[in-house]
């Protein structure tokens, strides 16, 4: 019977000593869906707000703060510049540039909305995703592709930052 209280303490200890302001895993999720009717690739990148803020402070502006009421106007510009540098998409062997539509914050995640227009046919899609690799050594990026009738997910790490989906 004396073992039960000790067991409860050991089970609760990790929750009591953990810091709720940080997270153990460094991960982003990028979803790419082909919308045939609009002939576009619609992209949503989900990045933890605190991780993205750390990156933007190191790379562009030490004073920047995300997800506040009076957020700096340059935030969208910095996000677009960074994502354009770290997220590369090639369709049928042709490198394509996306348009930064905007972003929103939900809970502790930044949702960045991107789009590539005038994509009429996809035989293959290749993607390089290096988001946050330059800040967090254990960063992992999940890529989910919904192209035509295919759904495919990839886990990208700094040593393997690219993926390809052939539809032929």
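-> sequence recovered:
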């Amino acid at each position: 019977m004396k073992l039960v209280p000790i067991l409860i303490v050991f089970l609760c200890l990790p929750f009591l000593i953990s810091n709720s302001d940080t997270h153990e895993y460094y991960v982003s999720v990028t979803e790419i869906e082909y919308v045939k009717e609009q002939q576009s690739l619609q992209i949503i990148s989900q990045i933890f707000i605190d991780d993205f803020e750390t990156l933007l402070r190191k790379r562009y502006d030490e004073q920047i703060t995300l997800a506040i009421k009076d957020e700096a106007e340059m935030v969208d510009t910095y996000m677009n510049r960074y994502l354009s540098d770290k997220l590369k998409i090639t369709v049928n062997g042709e490198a394509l540039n996306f348009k930064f539509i905007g972003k929103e914050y939900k809970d502790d995640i930044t949702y960045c909305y991107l789009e590539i227009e005038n994509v009429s046919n996809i035989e293959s899609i290749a993607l390089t995703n290096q988001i946050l690799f330059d800040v967090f050594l254990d960063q992992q990026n999940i890529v989910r592709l919904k192209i035509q009738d295919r759904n495919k997910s990839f886990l990208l790490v700094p040593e393997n930052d690219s993926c390809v989906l052939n539809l032929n």
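The beta strands are 27-35, 40-48, 87-91, 94-96, 99-106, 109-117, 124-129, 140-147, 150-156, 162-166.
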